[in-house]
């Protein structure tokens, strides 16, 4: 049988264990909150970076579109001004492509 002294020691150990478990739980809770906060910070930073990248890509696309438009206008102006030269160039390009296709078979 356990005497009063033994029972008191068991109760003290149980109380100490309960305290350690509660303290560990609080530490884990704090660590989880920190990890969640850090993850949120990373997600926010990634979102901001994605926004900046999207804006940069949009600007590049607008520039490419305007340059392509200018080039198309320049080619269109050349073709309108030099109809026969344009027809001869188109015929030469067509002949060259046909020769390449025929030789590859």
Helix/strand structural class: mainly alpha
Oligomer type = single chain
Question: In terms of per-residue confidence, which ranges show pLDDT below 50 for 5 or more consecutive residues?
Answer: none
Q: Figure out the total of helices.
A: 2
Largest sheet, in brief, is:
none
Principal-axis shape equals rod-shaped
What is the string of helix and strand elements? Answer: HH
Helix content: over 70%
In whole angstroms, the N-to-C terminal distance is: 101 Å
Quick one: how many beta strands? 0
Strand content: under 5%
- Calculate Rg over CA atoms: 39 Å
Mean pLDDT: 88
Number of domains: 1
Architecture overview:
The structure is a single chain. The radius of gyration is 39 Å and the shape is rod-shaped. With 105 residues, the protein is an all-alpha fold. The longest helix has 78 residues. 95% of the residues lie in helices and 0% in strands. The termini are far apart.
């Amino acid at each position: 049988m356990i005497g009063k002294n033994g029972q008191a020691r068991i109760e003290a150990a149980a109380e100490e264990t309960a305290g350690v478990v509660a303290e560990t739980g609080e530490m884990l809770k704090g660590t989880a909150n920190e990890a969640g906060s850090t993850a949120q910070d990373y997600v926010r930073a990634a979102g901001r970076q994605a926004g900046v990248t999207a804006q940069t890509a949009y600007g590049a696309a607008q520039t490419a579109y305007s340059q392509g438009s200018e080039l198309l206008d320049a080619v269109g102006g050349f073709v309108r001004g030099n109809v026969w030269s344009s027809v001869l160039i188109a015929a030469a390009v067509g002949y060259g492509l046909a020769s390449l296709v025929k030789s590859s078979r």
